[in-house]
Amino acid sequence: MKRSLLVLGCGGHGRVVADAAFECGYDEVAFLDDVGSAHQPRGLKVLGPFAATADFAPDWPAAIAAVGNGDLRLRLFHDIRQLGFETPSIVHPSAVVSRGALIGNGVFVAAGAIINTDARIGDAVIVNTGARIDHDCEIGVGSHIAPGATLSGSVVVGQRTWLGTGCSVRQGTRIGEKVMVGVGAAVVSDLADGLTYVGVPARVLKNAR
């Protein structure tokens, strides 16, 4: 039986998700995206805009929201759930995911990522290339763990938070909702909701938008 996947978003992240889907055994992948032909992926089709998602439900039973922006990704995720699509998680075959980890719906785990035992990954989370999430961590829905980020054990990350490329988080730290952590930052204490943190150790970025 042919396995088909509709990918919402054909930017860089969406195309990475599509590649991983083929590695996971999907036979057919196509995109929806509001930018149309501007991001036409090589060899794959952009079938229409996000607003047309419902039109494809009969022929494309499974879909995944694959945009980098956490707010938009969550909105698209909830839309496709309400429309009756299956929302599989895509885990690249080279990723290492413990059988004791709990992975939500619509999660993307990229090549080389590691998720250790008793970690809990919420819906529509991105665990990007080479990111490492150790035992007993909890990642809130819609968050993005960027390439090479390292979370020691028992870290809690709130919803719609972005942990930048190569950052590191000390064991037992709690990070709030809608937080941004800069590239290469070292998080050694709890971080409050809605703020941007940079540096070693990570501190609030003043005048951040």
Descriptive report:
The protein is an alpha/beta fold. The protein has two domains: 4-88, Rossmann fold; 89-201, UDP N-Acetylglucosamine Acyltransferase, domain 1 (3 Solenoid). The protein is 12% helix and 26% strand. The protein has two helices and 23 strands. The strands form four sheets. Strands 5-8-11-14-17-20-22-23 form an eight-stranded mixed beta sheet, with helices on one face. Strand 1 (4-8), helix 1 (12-23) and strand 2 (28-32) form a beta-alpha-beta unit. The longest helix has 13 residues, at 70-82. The model has no long low-confidence stretch (mean pLDDT 94). InterPro entries: AcTrfase_PglD-like, PglD_N, Trans_hexapeptide_repeat, Trimer_LpxA-like_sf. It holds the Pfam family PglD_N. Belongs to the transferase hexapeptide repeat family. This is Acetyltransferase. Residues 5-79 form the PglD N-terminal domain.
